């Protein structure tokens, strides 16, 4: 078995995403399917393969296509990932409303699809698609299993948004990151919120206003990546090592740790309640199982 196959086989869920993949009903369905697998898994990590060179983009759509196209693409993506998510994603995509078309740019109200650069924003009724995307991404972000992202090549648009939800982020030294947007500026996705929470408003402001391409070293310097590795195979090997390490943490324990991080940006009074609840769960578990 190849290293990539071994990494996929041990994962709780696998989600592949092209580095400049458009936001489509099929993509949302794939994220939902991965979230469902992560929520039901008792071991393994959620593996996000992002970018042009990570085997990502399987089933990606570059045109609006029809429900049948989305279903076929999603099923292929699931087979490539070694999980059942593709089949479920295809079924979900075929049920998506007709208004949930690929997201583009243009004046609001001119139609469901714009003509601007990939991943820039909803037009007309496309807001439904954006809403379902954000909810699916949040489910993936809050699942009990740890999330490991591996980035190769360019990563922007929805792929960058997915990257920002990952617990641990590895990239090869050829990776490049950028906020999505068109000539009228960056698309105001929740990536902006996550950036401000994770790296601070001052650094997030520069990325939002200027939208520079960041190489792997620059992205790591901004704490958008945890590790950069020279070479694609080496990055894959490192991802396998980290996946094995993260898999040893019980899912519920991982969920508690992540919740504390999420709540760290709340007021002290709000954070205290979450902290005490987490302590209570930990103490109850120790009383039942004994100290670790």
Could you tell me the CATH topology label of the largest domain: 2-enoyl-CoA Hydratase, Chain A, domain 1
Q: What is the top-level CATH class of the largest domain?
A: Alpha Beta
| Termini gap | 35 Å
What is the CATH superfamily label of the largest domain? 2-enoyl-CoA Hydratase, Chain A, domain 1
Total helix count? Answer: 12
For the report, how would you describe the main beta sheet? 5 strands, parallel
The SS-based structural class is alpha/beta
Write down the domain tally.
Answer: 2
> Residue share in helices?
40-55%
Strand order of the largest sheet: 1-2-3-5-10
- General shape: globular
**Order of H and E elements:** HEHEHHHEEHEEEEHHEHEHHH
How many strand segments? 10
The CATH architecture designation of the largest domain is: Alpha-Beta Complex
Estimate the mean pLDDT confidence.
Answer: 74
What percent strand? 5-15%
Rg result: 19 Å
Task: Give a quick rundown of the structure.
With 292 residues, the chain is of the alpha/beta class. Helix content is 50%, strand content 12%.
SSE arrangement:
Elements lengths: L2 H7 L3 E5 L7 H16 L5 E5 L16 H15 L3 H10 L32 H16 L4 E5 L2 E3 L1 H6 L4 E5 L3 E3 L2 E2 L2 E2 L3 H10 L1 H10 L3 E2 H6 L5 E3 L2 H15 L4 H13 L4 H22 L3
Parallel strand pairs: 1-2, 2-3, 3-5, 4-6, 5-10
Antiparallel strand pairs: 6-9, 7-8
Helix pairs in contact: 1-10, 2-3, 2-4, 2-5, 3-4, 7-8, 11-12
What does it look like?
With 292 residues, this protein is of the alpha/beta class. It folds into two domains: 3-246, 2-enoyl-CoA Hydratase, Chain A, domain 1 (Alpha-Beta Complex), CATH 3.90.226; 251-289. 50% of the residues lie in helices and 12% in strands. The protein is built from twelve helices and ten strands. The protein has helices spanning 3-9, 25-40, 67-81, 85-94, 127-142, 158-163, 190-199, 201-210, 216-221, 232-246, 251-263, 268-289, and strands spanning 13-17, 46-50, 147-151, 154-156, 168-172, 176-178, 181-182, 185-186, 214-215, 227-229. The chain has a five-stranded parallel beta sheet, with helices on both faces. Strands 4-6-9 form a three-stranded mixed beta sheet. Strand 1, helix 2 and strand 2 (46-50) form a beta-alpha-beta unit. Helix 1 runs parallel beside helix 10, helix 2 packs parallel to helix 3 and helix 2 (25-40) packs parallel to helix 5 (127-142). It is globular. Mean pLDDT is 74; it is low at 55-84 and 92-125.
């Amino acid at each position: 078995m190849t290293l990539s196959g071994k990494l996929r086989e041990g994962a709780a869920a696998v989600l592949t995403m092209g580095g400049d993949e458009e936001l489509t009903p099929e993509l949302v369905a794939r994220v939902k399917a991965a979230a469902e697998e992560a929520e039901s898994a008792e071991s393994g990590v959620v593996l996000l393969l992002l970018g042009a060179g990570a085997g990502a983009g399987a089933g990606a759509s570059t045109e609006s296509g029809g429900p049948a196209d989305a279903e076929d693409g999603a099923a292929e993506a699931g087979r490539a990932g070694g999980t059942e998510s593709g089949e479920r994603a295809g079924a979900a995509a075929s049920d998506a409303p007709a208004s949930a078309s690929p997201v583009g740019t243009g004046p609001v109200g001119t139609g469901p699809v714009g003509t601007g650069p990939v991943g820039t924003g909803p037009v007309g009724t496309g807001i439904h698609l954006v809403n379902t995307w954000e909810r699916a991404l949040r489910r993936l972000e809050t699942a009990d299993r740890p999330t490991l992202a591996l980035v190769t090549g360019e990563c922007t648009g929805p792929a960058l948004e997915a990257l920002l939800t990952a617990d641990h982020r590895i990239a090869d030294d050829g990776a490049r990151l950028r906020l999505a947007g068109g000539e009228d500026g960056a698309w105001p996705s929740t990536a902006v919120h996550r950036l401000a929470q994770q790296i601070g408003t001052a650094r997030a402001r520069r990325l939002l206003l200027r939208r520079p391409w960041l190489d792997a070293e620059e992205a790591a310097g901004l704490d958008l990546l945890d590790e950069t590795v020279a070479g694609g195979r080496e990055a894959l090997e490192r991802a396998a090592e980290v996946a094995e390490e993260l898999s040893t943490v019980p899912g519920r324990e991982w969920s508690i740790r992540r919740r504390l991080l999420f709540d760290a940006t709340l007021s002290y009074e709000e954070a205290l309640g979450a902290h005490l609840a987490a302590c209570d769960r930990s103490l109850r578990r120790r009383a039942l199982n004994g100290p670790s």
